[in-house]
Every structure is written in C-alpha cells, then in structure tokens.
Amino acid sequence: MTDLNLRLDNVPSLDGKVVLLTAHVSIGGASGIGLAAARIFASKGAEVHVLDIVPIDESFDIYEIPGQTVKPPESLPEVPRGRINFRQCDITDWKSLRDNFLSFDHIDIAVANAGVSQDPDYFTDVFDDDGLLLEPKHKVMDVNFRSVLNFTKLALRQFATQPAGSSLVITASATAYAPEQSLPVYSATKLAVVGLIRGLRPMAEQYGTTINGVAPAATISKLLPTNLAAPIKAAGAPISSAYHVGLAIAYSATAQQQRAVESYGRDDATKSNSPGRWNGRIILTLGDRWTELEEPIASLRPNWFGEYNTKMTAFQQKLTDQRPL
C-alpha cells in the first residue's frame, strides 16, 4: 500500500474556485468530516456551498480525538465570514439536488460526502397486520448510494459544459474494504461507491474532470460521537479526527500523480505512465495515517484475480472500449 504524508501545504490556493459539498446526517447539521473539508477548502480561498437539510453546526470540534490533549500538528487560519455558505437541500430528492446545481454558473470541486449509518435492526423481521413480512426501510441506500449517483450525474453534466479542470470526490468508507458484520448494508453501500469510482475512472477525462474517493475508518463525527469513540481509543485502536479526513478530501480534489492507477481498454503505455491529475484513487484514513489503496490493489490483480482472468478480462475491456481516444 502507498502511505502518504499530507499537510495543509499540499493543498494549493483555491482562490476563485467554487466548491459544492453535501453533508447530510440523520442526527444534525453539517459537521464532522463535511465541516472539516469545507473549512479546509475555504481556508485556501474557495467559495464553499454546503448542501444539507439543517444548517451547519459550527460548534463541532474538527480536531477532537478522545483522550488527546496535545495541540493538533497544524490548525486552520480564521475563515472570513461568507466563505462557507449553507444551502438547504434534501439530497435524496432529485429536484432539490438538481435545482441547487442549476443555481451555479460553474463548479470547480464537487464533494459527495453525505452519509448515514444503517438501522441496526435492518434484518429484524417486522410484519404487517396480516402477518406478512414488511419491506425494510432503505434510507441508508437512498442517502449513501442513490443520492451519490444522482450527485455524480449532476456533477458530470455540469463539468461537461465548462473548461476541463474540475474534480469530483466521494466519501466511501473503510468498511468497503473491511466490512463490519454489524453494518452489512452500510458496508455494501460504501463498496458500491468504490465500484462507482472504479467504473468511472477511465471515463472521467471525457467530462474534463477527475473522480476520487476517501475511505474513513473510525472518525469523530455525529455518526461516531466522542462518548462512543472513547472505548475504542482506550483499547488502543486508532481513531481519526474529522480534520484528518477532511484534509484527505481536499488533497484528493487537487493532487497530482506520476502515473495512472492502471491502464484500461485501449489505453497505451505512454498514457498510463504519464504524470497528470490524481484520478481513480481512494485514500484510507485510519488513525493518523493516510494510505492510497487503488494503485496497489490494481498492481496485485494477477495475484488475487488470477493471471489468466486478468489478461482475458482486460482483452474484453479493450474490445468493448468505446471511449473517443
């Protein structure tokens, strides 16, 4: 795996840039990872618009980790008033999301960060008055994947109408790679997000953009408040601050790479080995570490997928690759 050492200085000036970010949780306004990312973007000069149902919770401590008393290694400068803006939006509603996109002439960075946890009783049987099994509620899928698909669709449509150079970042989860048995549906939605990033990786250039992700492990937020995180930290397990994950999001939207994650279809070796914008990559945030996962996984494909299977599926992709190269 590829370990990274990120600092705020790794994120370039974003003066004049417009950032659109979703931050929906079922238990309160934009906070945690979304708030941290918004503040980082704004500290670099961007105009940030946060889409959520309820206003931003400015009181949330984005640096907090249970039991940590030392000052964070770096802190953000004061962000001028008006640099971060709240826009009311139900991200699960197509019209609400579409209308927000339509209100912008251009968007430079789009971040699909919204997420909710699953109902722990998802697989508990509930019956109607006739004794028939009721269909479970699908809010976790509506927020974590369907709304992400809609956000991605709208972002790509917007990016295709403006000069190249935009970025799309999606918040996945460490559970996409290491599923939680207590959160099987949540884990499945986040694995679907990883699949979306991988599937769009070869196509992003057609829209003048890049697509990347961040996969947080246990992180202080309203989904994992300090009181629940304290026993994890006390046992010696790693926990990330919201700032740690927010920095990975900002980096993913602006970074450069030395080569592509992997070639696809009719890509030639020159293109795959050329430097360019960070694309199709996912950063795992675990404790105080950042690790890029996708290039190492792709490079080991013959080991876990089989050499013959790797060769033949790549051949199939080449035959069906209809991108205008």
UniProtKB/TrEMBL annotation:
It comes from the Eukaryota. PROSITE patterns: ADH_SHORT. Belongs to the short-chain dehydrogenases/reductases (SDR) family. The keyword Hydrolase does not apply. Keywords: NADP, Oxidoreductase. Gene3D superfamilies: NAD(P)-binding Rossmann-like Domain (3.40.50.720). One of its GO terms (molecular function) is oxidoreductase activity. This is Short chain dehydrogenase reductase.
